[in-house]
Each structure stands twice: as structure tokens, then as C-alpha cells.
Amino acid sequence: MSLSLPSCLFVRLFRRPTLTTSRKCSTQSVLTREVGKNAVVTLNRPKVLNSMNVDLQRNVYKTLMDLQNKKSLIVLKGAGDRAFSSGGDLVLLKKAALTKDWVYVNDMGFYLNANLHLLRNYKIPIITFMNGITMGAGAGYSVSCRFRVATDKTKFAMPEVKVGFLPNASASYFFNRTIGQLGFYLALTGSTITGTDVLRAGFATHYCNQSDLPTLEEELLQCSCDKNINAVLDKFCQKDIPELTLQPVMDKINKCFSEPTVESIFAKLKDDGSPWARDTLNIMEKYSPSSLKVILKQLQKGKSMSWLECLHMEYNLTVNFYKFKDTYEGTRIVLQDKNDTPKWDPPNLIDVTEELIEKHFEPNSQEVFNKFLNEIKSS
């Protein structure tokens, strides 16, 4: 069953907000430390795992725009030792949805994509410390940067399937550019990979111990060029990396998650019968049938798409997911009633028709999205 959204949302979803209304780091959600020609930018909401609200994302945008023509290098990190960022703040997003605050939803969407584009096309090197929880939009931010340092405490995931949503923040692109079908497995199970596995999978470019980050940061701040950056990273980062923890089951992952439908993935897992396959099936059977089918189609489409095309597809998907009940239901379970059983609509895979899947991919104002891209490119 679909939900009605105000028509103004589709017109305004990716309008460019008025930047002048923002106070400069008024809530200290983003901290900046400048050292000569270099700087450290810190996501500063440690009590909520540096989750992203509009204020944080707006201040990231303003800060990075200001620094890229003044500095030679940026270190991007999260405050505290627990997280780079856990992604979008679900509490605030749910509140916005319940109160029909589409301006907030609009601004979250705009700044997410603006920052992804800015990070990916930044004029100077950004070194991201993927320390601790690096999930959702936090994962999207990190993989968009040139240098990405994972640690022994890194926990990397796109867990949106658990709340009846989709992995966005360019996941359609980067999940198609990892080992075999690992990206499909991670997207459809919401599983977390840690430590050296983040490097092995290609989401990080370097790996070091968390305890080395303070010294690494200080030495990076003395760098003057890419050659120096690589030398410093090589000094601190380990090269002797163990094989992927999932390597013993990669053949199974490749076999099962290369199937064309969710039903055939389930069938392969049942036929396999191994403890890993049984556990994986048990996990996936709890998720929204609609979300599973749409995510699989999303990743299949993303295989042949450019980064910008993936971003556009995810824009349409994000808008359209909020027309249906499962994202609200999944968020309710995560935030309020963790012991309750979700009531997905439709409840079974067989009831999720191809027509329903395609409704999630319907375009939402091509003109607005093109304006959004043009504004970012010219900024």
C-alpha cells in the first residue's frame, strides 16, 4: 500500500537551500583545526556516533568549500574513538517524516549529495580516518575520498535493508566495484565487515592501528604534496594484510548472490545448507520483501551506470521509498519497538510484483535533479 506525499516534496526535494541562513559552525557540529597550509575537519556529534543531521552536513559543505582553495591537504575524521559516522540521524529523520517537515528532508538530501560530489571531486587530497563505526552516509562520505584509512576498530556497513530502506550515498556504484558479489551480499544482508577486511574489499586504501592515528594525523599535517602523503601513510600503515575473513565462503557468496532474483538467491542458500547459508537465509527472511527486491534491482542496474547515474537512480529511489510503508515500519522497529515483529507490506516475496518494484524507480523531476547537478558542478 502506498502513502501520499505532498506534491511540493517532489518539486523541492533537491532544491538548493539558502546557504546564508546557516550559522558558521553554530552548534559546533563540525570542528576545524588549521595547521599551516593543512587542516583537520572533525564531525563532532560523538554522543550519537557522529550521526548526520542537517546542521552537520551543511557545516561540512561550508567548511570544505571554504578550505579547498586555501589549504593543501585535509584530514577528515569523527570525534571520539567510537565512530567516523553512523550515517543519517534516524531519530531526526523519523521526527521530520511524522511532522511532514519536508524542508528538513530536502536539506538532508541536498547536502548528502552535495558533499558526496564535493568529496569525490575535491581539489586537494582528503585523508579520511574510517575509525570505528563507518556506516550509511558515513560509509558514502569515506569511500568518496582519495585516501581512506581503516583501523582495527573500523566497522563498515550499509545496513539500510534492516529498516526497509535502500543503501544510498553512492552504494549502487561502490558495491559493484568490490570483490565478486561481496557488495550484493553486504547490501542484501546489511552485514558489517571490520578492520583489514575493509581494505581487502577496496573500501579503504590503507590500514593502521587506531592507536597510531594521533601520530599519523600530526605527520600528515606536515605534508606538502601527494608524494609526502603516500610516504607518511606507508610509514604507519600495514602492508602484510590477512586474507578476507569471508574468503572461505566467497565461492558461496558469488554463487548465491549472482542469482537474478531474491527467490533464486533464497533457493541457492537453501540448497547449500551450510551453517553460513542457513544463517544468511535466516537473516534475510526477516527483512522487508519489497526492500530486498528493490535493492537487488538497484545493484543490478548500477553495474552499468556511471557514478552520477547511480546517484540519480538513488535520488529517485529515496523519494519513492517514502511513498510506501516499509521504511516507516522498519524505522519504528529500530527506534521504538525493538522486540516487536515488523509488519511488512506486502508481507511475502511472492506478493512483490515487478510492477511494484518498478514504481520505486520512477523518475522524480528530472529538471530538478539536473539543476542540482549543475549547481554542484559550478560551485
From TrEMBL:
<dbReference type="Pfam" id="PF16113">
    <property type="entry name" value="ECH_2"/>
</dbReference>
<dbReference type="InterPro" id="IPR032259">
    <property type="entry name" value="HIBYL-CoA-H"/>
</dbReference>
<dbReference type="GO" id="GO:0006574">
    <property type="term" value="P:L-valine catabolic process"/>
</dbReference>
<keyword id="KW-0378">Hydrolase</keyword>
<dbReference type="GO" id="GO:0005739">
    <property type="term" value="C:mitochondrion"/>
</dbReference>
<feature type="domain" description="Enoyl-CoA hydratase/isomerase">
    <location>
        <begin position="40"/>
        <end position="361"/>
    </location>
</feature>
<dbReference type="GO" id="GO:0003860">
    <property type="term" value="F:3-hydroxyisobutyryl-CoA hydrolase activity"/>
</dbReference>
<protein>
    <recommendedName>
        <fullName>3-hydroxyisobutyryl-CoA hydrolase, mitochondrial</fullName>
        <ecNumber>3.1.2.4</ecNumber>
    </recommendedName>
</protein>
<comment type="function">
    <text>Hydrolyzes 3-hydroxyisobutyryl-CoA (HIBYL-CoA), a saline catabolite. Has high activity toward isobutyryl-CoA. Could be an isobutyryl-CoA dehydrogenase that functions in valine catabolism. Also hydrolyzes 3-hydroxypropanoyl-CoA.</text>
</comment>
<dbReference type="InterPro" id="IPR029045">
    <property type="entry name" value="ClpP/crotonase-like_dom_sf"/>
</dbReference>
<dbReference type="InterPro" id="IPR045004">
    <property type="entry name" value="ECH_dom"/>
</dbReference>
<comment type="similarity">
    <text>Belongs to the enoyl-CoA hydratase/isomerase family.</text>
</comment>
